[in-house]
Design a protein that fits this description.
Layout (H helix, E strand, L loop, with lengths): L1 E5 L8 E5 L9 E11 L1 H8 L2 H11 L10 E9 L11 E5 L11 E5 L7 E3 L6 H6 L1 H12 L8 E5 L4 H12 L3 E6 L4 H6 L4 E4 L11 E6 L6 H4 L3 E9 L8 H12 L7 E6 L3 H10 L5 E5 L2
Parallel strand pairs: 8-9, 8-11, 9-10, 11-12, 13-14
Antiparallel strand pairs: 1-2, 3-4, 3-6, 3-14, 4-5, 5-7
Length: about 300
């Protein structure tokens, strides 16, 4: 099968399209024919992180450096491993390969039905494979972090970095919960972010954070705000949230978010659709900091 292999730690040049053996599912596992995958900021970080750091950390937390790139996927169950009864051949699924050596930038991927780090869920017919692949990480991260602020009904929420995968989901999820959402992004992304449900959209290239006015919640979706930047606009008792805080993947939360997407209440923003051989170039875009929303890798 075709796959994007990671030859060693480094820049996008360490990625290569290669022919590798098609995997076989073991006990409690599924073989998935990948229909769509993504290229994310997390993928780029895993690719570039020194193995001298990644290997010891992986031994502590139970994961290994990825030999095949790509964490998010959507596809069709091709084969069931021994003991699997809650999925069927031909079923549509989505999920992540978090913690696994072999990722989803490949024609096939094997994932456990129950994973300590990754997640798996059924993909409703109303959602495309593209939408399924683009949903898990951005939506789960935004959802978990927003929960730390408590009920958002009637609250003023500012999302900084609103055009990325996490930020675009945070805008939608905060608005869905009844918040008045302001968003910071580049001028090129103002119309896109406004379309996601932001009541006010500010261009960080020409406007200051103070122009957003007082906020009950500041969500830093890129992890770049300093306390001196956000503190002046945070209301008394307000909450600062950041992607720099810890999150985890939970299957129940993914199922809930998939339900919202199936109902049309949230929608992952897809900026680019690429072929498998274009993944290294997509990593260059991610490294530049100019990625909008999600980059989806189409397998056919």
């Amino acid at each position: 099968m075709k796959a994007i292999i990671v030859k060693k730690a480094g820049g996008p040049e360490v990625l290569a399209l290669a022919d590798v053996d098609k995997p076989k599912p073991g006990k409690g596992e599924l073989l998935i024919r990948v229909k769509a995958a993504t290229v994310t900021v997390g993928d780029a970080k895993l690719r570039s992180m020194s193995r001298a750091i990644l290997v010891p950390v992986g031994l502590i937390f139970g994961f290994k450096p990825m030999k095949i790139a790509g964490v998010e996927f959507a596809g069709i169950v091709e084969e069931l491993g021994e003991g699997v009864s809650n999925y069927a051949k031909g079923e549509r699924v989505l999920g992540t390969t978090t913690g696994l050596e072999r990722g989803a930038n490949a024609e096939f991927v094997v994932v456990p039905v129950q994973s300590r780090m990754g997640v798996l869920a059924k993909l409703p017919e109303g959602l495309s494979f593209e939408e399924g692949a683009a949903l898990p990480v951005g939506a789960m991260t935004a959802w978990q972090i927003l929960q730390k602020a408590g009920p958002l009904q009637g609250k003023r929420v500012l999302v900084y970095g609103a055009s990325g995968s996490v930020g675009s989901c945070a805008v939608q999820l905060a608005a869905l919960q009844g918040a008045s959402v302001s968003a910071f992004c580049s001028a090129a992304n103002v119309a896109m972010v406004r379309g996601l449900g932001a009541a006010a959209v500010l261009d960080y290239q020409s406007q200051a954070l103070a122009d957003a006015g007082e906020q009950d919640v500041v969500f830093d979706a890129v992890g770049k705000l300093s306390r001196s930047a956000y503190a002046p606009i945070l209301a008394k008792g307000g909450v600062y949230l950041s992607v720099r805080g810890p999150t985890s993947e939970r299957a129940d939360e993914l199922r809930y978010l998939v339900g919202l997407a199936a109902e049309g209440r949230i929608k992952p923003f897809i900026d680019r659709r690429i072929r498998l051989e274009d993944v290294p170039e997509a990593h260059r875009l991610v490294d530049s900091g100019r990625k909008r929303g999600n980059i989806v890798v189409l397998m056919d």
